[in-house]
């Protein structure tokens, strides 16, 4: 499925002759910034199009890259826009458009990840998708796994960077068993897959997933179950496991603080080091540390 892309030529193309292959919603503030930049300094990079004659034989073009720039030009009242005209197939045009979107920070993650699924459905295997999009094979495999299982809620969290992909896969691998999910979370914490805010975010995503289902668009609250002794035990055990994680995190933080306090005490005992800090204007400490490092009282 490889294709040699011919070197394109720069042309002034009428905007009304350009069709958008992969339209996407755009943040209003970001779009206004694009319009302002083009109005102030002009178009720094031309859009990319490929010829696609209409059924009546008239010349038309398919937009490959530069939807925001084209819309900004249109908003400024321009009828034509500088464009690099290349010869590519519909599939390669889609891939080029998807690749540009992947490079953007503000692209909607679920729509972007669905694009990876579309490439897969068109017959591209994980390795080829990775090569064409610049993603690693493991990432593509993980995304396709979540997509095939309908885990939209986890996909959005991964796409926004709230939780890492390997942690999301561990959650999915645990199924719907609450204890297995908690065990997966604990293992992810202990192995360093989830740290700090990511652990909190993962818990929130799991709670929404359990309540609203894995789908974002069609999630509906699950029917409440009758309170039984077994359900109360499960809730209690869940809270116990959560508290254990909190305690473990607190103990780790305490150990690190003790190490920092001990190290700083030894450093400040060295007069040469203290003199150097004063000379560089770095002789102050946060109050919390100063009370423990510079006083003779207890450290914690």
TrEMBL record:
Domain ParB-like N-terminal: 11-102
InterPro entries with a match to the protein in the record: Chromosome_partition/occlusion (IPR050336), ParB/Sulfiredoxin_sf (IPR036086), ParB_N (IPR003115), Plasmid_RepB (IPR011111)
Species, as recorded: Methylomonas subterranea
SMART domains: ParB
Pfam family of the protein (one): ParB_N
Protein name: ParB N-terminal domain-containing protein
Gene3D superfamilies attached to this UniProt entry: 1.10.10.2830, 3.90.1530.30
